[in-house]
Amino acid sequence: NTKTAALQKLDSAHYLHPFTDHKDLASKGARIITRGEGVYVWDTEGNKILDGMSGLWCVNMGYGQTELVEAATQQMTVLPFYNSFFNTSVEPAIELAALLAEITPPQFNHVFYSSSGSESNDTILRMVRRYWDIKGEKQRKTIISRKNGYHGSTVAGASLGGMTGMHEQGDLPIPGIVHIEQPYFREVVKDHPELKDLSEDEFGVLAAGWLEEKILEVGADKVAAFIGEPVQGAGGVIIPPKTYWPEIQRICDKYGILLISDEVICGFGRLGTWFGCETMGTKPDFMTFAKGVTSGYIPLGGAMVSDRVVDVLYQDGDFNHGYTYSGHPVACAVAVANIKLMQKLDLVNRVKNDTGPYLKQAFESLNDHPLVADAKTEGMVAGLVMLKDKANNTPFDDDDNVGMICRGHCFDNGLVMRAVGDRMIIAPPLVISHAEIDELVRLARLALDATWADLKAKN
Ligand code: PLP
């Protein structure tokens, strides 16, 4: 319609989008989303779309939650902003800090606020180095991270992340950040076919062992911390073997290295526990979060800092770090309302015992599709890989563009599913019902069928 066309024209003339090919955008025009309700959004053309990605892994409570809107309105009316610098504080930030101390694992009783996941990870980088400095081990500067991990788009965030496409733009990573291989069996076996007969559990231990190798290579007394997402999200929902994280924890403990759990996606119930580290069985020193803390209704991020770090970092004077919007009262008020609503609905247990298992059986049924292998879920995230020749385990080539083809069919069928190379991934709102899960998987199968038909026609 004409409204869509006019908006698309302005959009491509003036709006620089994140992670977007602008030539492509100009030729096709953006799909402009105008409203949402529950797990659905609508575009300017009136199409109803099932949001299988919760916006961008964040709208965990779904759209149209009036309690969150009211919390924001109320706080904006009373006090839209005041800062927490120089011995001042604001009520919602205090209330949220206490609530976070209650719902996070016992080692966490303190939070540092930011407005995003990227800022939260930047905060940690400075905190970790400051911690070792105060401890008299200034040489412990190196942070070990993983290839294909995602920790944000700021200079430190993109450096901690392991996306080569991001490193190439802007001369990253910054010094002192090194990466090890991710725990993705299928990818690793491409380069190391001799490993193909390992069991999942054996592979998990092997993959964690790359951390120890890297520690020894760098020098154990120079390593400050290890950072990872419990489940790598943007990298393609890489669910690690059950043995992986406990082994990572053991290695960090052995060398006295701080463990950072990036909970930006996995935090706030996504894996069926309040935080992903609880599902994975680790006891991190830091947890960074954002997204789900407010269900994306307003930007807020932060870092939970464990008692043993707080005791060192704040024992003497200040830590010169903070953002104008650290502890923003409106964002914190929305977060409090969001967490209380999650508690009222017993949402985390629902993901663990009800909707998570339901999604598992529904989504993993896609494994019978001729294109699909490794369809797998953990709580409310899921991913699958598409194969060129399933019988012979042959992967697609990059220029087959299979993910983009499938994503297009999903969109045309009214489903948002994300493509990462040859993987299709979802992270639906945690409030999704059984009927909506059935609908999601039905639409995904239709898109896979259409992709299969396209590929057959091409060859
Ligand atoms: N960490 C993880 C695991 C993420 O998935 C993201 C964003 O997707 C970030 C950090 C960065 O968060 P933000 O985009 O809020 O800066």
From TrEMBL:
KW Transferase (keyword) present: yes
Which cofactor is recorded for it? pyridoxal 5'-phosphate
GO molecular function: any one? pyridoxal phosphate binding
Q: Which Gene3D superfamilies match?
A: Aspartate Aminotransferase, domain 1, Type I PLP-dependent aspartate aminotransferase-like (Major domain)
Which keywords accompany this UniProt record?
Aminotransferase, Pyridoxal phosphate, Transferase
InterPro entries, alphabetized: Aminotrans_3, Aminotrans_3_PPA_site, PyrdxlP-dep_Trfase, PyrdxlP-dep_Trfase_major, PyrdxlP-dep_Trfase_small
- Transmembrane residue ranges: none
A Pfam family assignment:
Aminotran_3
Write out the similarity annotation. Belongs to the class-III pyridoxal-phosphate-dependent aminotransferase family.
Among the entry's GO cellular component annotations, what is one?
Answer: cytosol
Which EC number(s) does the record attach to this protein? 2.6.1.-
Enzyme class comes to transferase
Lineage of producing organism:
Bacteria, Pseudomonadati, Pseudomonadota, Betaproteobacteria, Burkholderiales
Highest taxon, organism lineage: Bacteria
Fetch the PROSITE patterns from UniProt.
AA_TRANSFER_CLASS_3 (PS00600)
Q: Where is the signal peptide?
A: none
Q: What is this protein called?
A: Putative aminotransferase
